Amino acid sequence: MCMSDSPVSVHTPGNDAPSEAPAAPDPAAQKQMEQAYAQMKRKMAMAEIGKQIKHKIMVLSGKGGVGKSTVSTGLALALAQQGHKVGILDIDITGPNVPKMMGLDGRKLHVEGGRIHPAQGHLGVKVISMAFLLEDEDTPVVWRGPIKLGAIQQFIGDVEWGILDYLIIDFPPGTSDEPLTVAQSLPDIDGMVIVTTPQEVALLDSRKSITFASSLKVPVLGVVENMSGYTIQGKGTPGSEVEIAAPAGRTLRATCDDEGRFSLTLDIFKEGGGRSTAEEFGVPFLGALPFDPGFVRGGDDGVHRIVSEPEGASASAFSHVVASIQSQLDGASSSSLEII
Amino acid sequence: MTEEPLELRRLERRDTDMELTYEDGTTFTVSYDDLRHACPCAKCAPLRNEDDTSMHLRRTIEAYPKEKPLVKTVGNYAISFEWKTGCSSGIYRFERIWDLAHRRDPDRGRPYVHGAW
């Protein structure tokens, strides 16, 4: 196809005879055609992304507040620690907080040649988020579905990700416009990671997310149980027994070791719900992440727990989850439809 | 209908119909007129709720010039067809294509209710 300087050419059927002076195009029609041209370019770019990004992983949950963004950033950083090129696409249009967690608060995006260049956070992880486009962080984004859809397609089609090994896509809670748009627009999605907390209310919504994935024919890579248990440590007299009042009226006991140290894990939000839900739906259980107040501090300070304590228990739990995801990806079979 | 559709491996666009080949090698033919009449979009689907509007939709489709559509996959779960004339909005789930291939009502006898999806 030959492109002239103008992005679009106008052809009026039945009016092929040469005329002396072509009429000036209607500005509204011209604008409409330019928008159509931009949309076409975006669709082509979205198709190209499949070739440049090796693995695309959606991170979802049915319920809010289970730690999706913490898990998304943790997965991205854990993968980057392994030496992979990683990006995070923060699709949470109305509550974008990945930039803050990645230490990119207040950063503006660089736009060159009509392409948006992602910001780079810890360990070189590339980040795109609505937060970069807001004038100030207290401004709400009040958009209806179709406008969100356009923004998401721009985030996918107009961003210069470059070559990536993994793109982690962080969603708002639920199974509505955002994940549906991405599942329709982005080719060759490897799968969804469902984040849940162990309590029944969160599990109820997680089941919806698993069914949603099945409806869109996107594989479920597995379920991650976040806030799985809070480990407390302390000191007492060597050999003595310590009693802790735990949730649900239970009493936990531990014996201090030779140096007087003890450790107990409190199941604040119950335990094992993620694993049992995964088993119920026949999807893999990827692992449990501990309830770690360091995530809260790290999120507020913009230094993720994996960065501040790369050898810690939380980083180790993330490595385990990442290894489980990678084993799922290795075993995945792809089939393609031949269209002639 | 509880059977699980087989995986569609090949779609060949011919002049007035398409040939579908599934993973077990079986092939089916679906005419473009049947395909377009089964459009699941919110504009076309309600027209199939009544016999007279459904027949009118069918006649309108049959009057369109015969053309090969552009075919695109939508995510992992559906196909869309782009026509030069008429409606190109429908997203056809693979289950819907499977039903059409087997000459079954893809609406499963249910009337379309706007917003009920």
In the CATH hierarchy, the architecture of the largest domain in chain A is 3-Layer(aba) Sandwich
Residue share in β-strands of chain B: 25-35%
Number of domains of chain A: 2
CATH topology of the largest domain in chain A: Rossmann fold
Notes on the protein architecture:
The complex is a heterodimer of chains A (340) and B (117). Chain A has 340 residues and is α/β, with parallel strands linked by helices. Chain A is 36% helix and 21% strand. Chain A has helices at 27-52, 68-81, 98-101, 145-157, 177-185, 200-215, 273-281, 293-301, 305-308, 313-331; strands at 53-60, 86-90, 110-112, 115-117, 119-120, 126-129, 164-170, 191-196, 220-225, 230-235, 241-245, 251-255, 261-266, 285-288, 338-339. In chain A, the strands form 4 sheets. Chain A has an 8-stranded mixed β-sheet, with helices on both faces. A two-stranded antiparallel ribbon of chain A has the order 3-4. Chain A has a two-stranded antiparallel sheet with strand order 10-13. Chain A starts with 26 loop residues before the first helix and ends with a strand. The relative contact order of chain A is 0.15. Chain B is of the alpha+beta class and 117 residues long. Chain B contains 3 helices and 6 strands, in the order βββααβββα. The model of chain B has no long low-confidence stretch (mean pLDDT 87). The chains are: A alpha/beta (340), B alpha+beta (117). The interface between A and B is medium-sized, with 15 and 17 residues. Strand 15 of chain A pairs parallel with strand 1 of chain B.
